[in-house]
Design a protein that fits this description.
It is built from two helices and five strands; from the N terminus they run ββαβαββ.
Length: 107
């Protein structure tokens, strides 16, 4: 199992265990994590699963593809550590990953 910690916009931390191979988005949905949504079903088409990844984890993530980069480029709230959680597949190397969720209504 891989531990993932989600920190919401109020600072509340929730840590879950997830199977390697699932996305950070799916792990969040499976565990009823607030502020994780999936309007497109996880195909990188809606931006509802936007998260900020703790900077120390960025070099362990798979590189961003052109689709994700382009869609993130449309967001006013994009930061250097922005990613779509549907594109982040969990591996043992990501055990302990921490992401910050966003309020989809405010985005």
């Amino acid at each position: 199992m891989v531990k993932v910690t989600y920190i919401d916009t109020k600072g509340v931390e929730r840590t879950v265990d997830a199977e390697p191979g699932v996305s950070v988005m799916q792990a969040g949905l499976d565990n009823n994590i607030p502020q994780i949504e999936s309007d497109c079903g996880g195909v990188c088409a809606c931006a509802a699963c936007h998260v900020y990844v703790e900077p120390q984890w960025l070099d362990r993530l798979t590189p961003m593809n052109k689709t994700e980069n382009g869609l993130l480029g449309l967001l006013d709230v994009r930061k250097p550590n922005s990613r779509f959680s549907c594109q982040l597949k969990l591996t043992e190397a990501l055990d302990g990953l921490t992401v910050h969720t966003l309020d989809p209504v405010a985005e």
